[in-house]
Amino acid sequence: xxxxxxxxxxxxxxxxxxxxxxxxxxxxxxxxxxxxxxxxxxxxxxxxxxxxxxxxxxxxxxxxxxxxxxxxxxxxxxxxxxxxxxxxxxxxxxxxxxxxxxxxxxxxxxxxxxxxxxxxxxxxxxxxxxxxxxxxxxxxxxxxxxxxxxxxxxxxxxxxxxxxxxxxxxxxxxxxxxxxxxxxxxxxxxxxxxxxxxxxxxxxxxxxxxxxxxxxxxxxxxxxxxxxxxxxxxxxxxxxxxxxxxxxxxxxxxxxxxxxxxxxxxxxxxxxxxxxxxxxxxxxxxxxxxxxxxxxxxxxxxxxxxxxxxxxx
Length: 313
Known about the structure:
Blueprint: E1 6-14, E2 17-26, E3 33-38, H1 49-55, E4 60-64, H2 83-97, E5 101-107, H3 109-130, H4 141-144, E6 148-154, H5 162-172, E7 177-178, H6 181-191, H7 200-208, E8 211-214, E9 217-220, H8 227-231, H9 235-251, E10 256-261, H10 269-278, E11 282-287, H11 299-309
Parallel strand pairs: 3-4, 3-5, 5-6, 6-10, 10-11
Antiparallel strand pairs: 1-2, 2-4, 7-9, 8-9
C-alpha cells in the first residue's frame, strides 16, 4: 500500500479565466472505480490520507484541492468561490477520470459540492428525457455520464445552522502568521476544537495539511478571498440555497451514509432526522464527543465508512 499519493493537475474554467486544480491520487490509476473525496471550506485534499490509504486497494481514490486551496491556483475573481464553480471544476475532473463507478465522500463543503453535482445530474437527465430530437444527446452518455454509486455526507445536509456558519465565517478571512509550527498547531487546536479529541501527533499532522511555511512564517494555505462570497449572504440567499439543496438531496438515487458529529452545530439532529425520513436509502452514524466535523483520521471513524463504500453495510 503506497504511503504517499500522486499529485496531478487539471485545467478548469471560470468566468474570470482558466485555473489549475490540483488533485492527490491513491491506488491503481487504471481502476475505473473512482472514489472522489472532497474536503471542507478551509481544508485540503490531504485531509483524506488515512481514509484513502485504507481504501486504495479497492478504489482509485482522488482527493482534489478545491480551487483557492492547497496546491491549486487561486481565482482571479474571489466572487466565484461558490458551489456552482466547484461543481463545474469537479465535472471537468471527472471528465478526465472517466469513472465506470463513482463513489463520493464529502466533508462539509465537499458534501454540498456532491449535492450540487447530484442536482445537476438529475436536471440533465430530466432535460434529456424531455428532448425528443434525434441526436440531441450523445449515445454513449449512459456509459460515460455521471451517476453516483454511493455517497457519504460528512456532517453536512441541505439545512445549515446559521449560527455555525457565522462561527466559521468569523475566522475564514482573518490573516494569521506564526513564527513556529508549534504556534500554528496551538491555533489550530483552538479553531478546530469542535473536530473532537486528537493526539498531539494528529494535531500536528492536521495543521501541516493546511499551513505553509513562507519567508520564515507559517501561514494559511488558502486564498483569504474565500470569505468574500460568505460575507454577501443574507436570509433570502440561505433560504434559496436550502431549497435547491433539498431538491438535490431528494433526487439522490443511491445509498447515502450521513455522518454526524454528535455535538455538531452545523448539522442538527433535527435535520439529520429529516434527511433520514426523506430518503429511504439513507443510513446514518454519529460519533460521540465530536462536533463539526469528524476528521476521518481514526479507525473508529474510517472503518464504518469503508464498510459502507465497499457495500458491506
